């Protein structure tokens, strides 16, 4: 796609003849990426959707000007949000993914042959179509018949569901716009109800560095509902602060398996990462202890 001066898509600018994306969603921090090419740029009903080819991170999905996932580091997040919770539920049959429009979490989840159904409820069909077509490094060639795409608001989708799923993954964007309600106590209560009696959920719970308030609130909300809660982290270079958190809420005890079932074609998660990702830095452990 050509990008001549005044015809640039939003969120992009030229600097000395070079094309840049600047994330502009924070008051005191702006992160910029030098861009080779605009692959796709269109507004959807919910947000502005772009696939950009960047110099350092390869192709990236950008929603409302904020980088969501990239060819270079997307696997870290997508493997962590899928393989880690699945290790605690080896008998799981039905999985629900809420959000996850880049398809990376669904792609990883589909690696488990024992799963019978993977429902993916994404509000924005345009994100899924753009990622399938233009971001294959993340979305893969996802055509597994067990993956059912539902284009709907995840908040609405879980309302009134009872004991349907073994594992629910909340792979949401930041808590603004359509994703805001995916961080609310009412939504978590509906997720709790939609899980079977021994089910578990996981959500991305934001940056422990920049959004400790959101992580603490999420942890507190989930702990009010679930008897077993664990927070774990990974470093995802394109997320502000690098260090990122995930929170598991579980109705079943979170017993560490003697042997994991992590597939051998992962790029980030392996047995060692699974066992160490729950070791929390001192500041984070004490922040959660007082919750
Ligand atoms: N890994 C990424 C991160 O943490 O920034 C985000 C993964 S994915 C791209 C997030 C998806 O959640 C987006 O495609 C967005 O359209 C979707 N989403 C936001 N609000 C939603 C809602 N209420 N129901 C379903 N999907 C939603």
Describe this protein's structure.
With 291 residues, the chain is of the alpha/beta class. It folds into two domains: 5-70, Spermidine Synthase, Chain: A, domain 2 (Roll), CATH 2.30.140; 74-289, Rossmann fold. Helices cover 26% and strands 31% of the residues. Helix 6 crosses helix 7 (212-225). The protein is globular, with a radius of gyration of 19 Å. It starts with 11 loop residues before the first strand and ends with a helix. The model has no long low-confidence stretch (mean pLDDT 96). Bound molecules: S-adenosylmethionine. S-adenosylmethionine binds at residues 61, 68-69, 77, 98-102, 121-124, 127, 153-155, 171-173, 178-179, 182, 204.
State the name of the first-level CATH class of the largest domain: Alpha Beta
The average pLDDT value, as a whole number, equals 96
Helix tally?
9
CATH topology of the largest domain, by name, is Rossmann fold
Radius of gyration: 19 Å
Outline the secondary-structure elements:
Layout: E1 12-15, E2 18-23, E3 31-43, E4 48-54, E5 58-63, E6 66-70, H1 74-87, E7 94-99, H2 104-109, E8 117-122, H3 125-134, H4 136-139, E9 147-151, H5 154-158, E10 165-171, H6 185-194, E11 195-204, H7 212-225, E12 228-235, E13 243-250, H8 271-276, H9 282-289
Parallel strand pairs: 7-8, 7-10, 8-9, 10-11
Antiparallel strand pairs: 1-2, 2-3, 3-4, 4-5, 5-6, 11-13, 12-13
The structure holds S-adenosylmethionine.
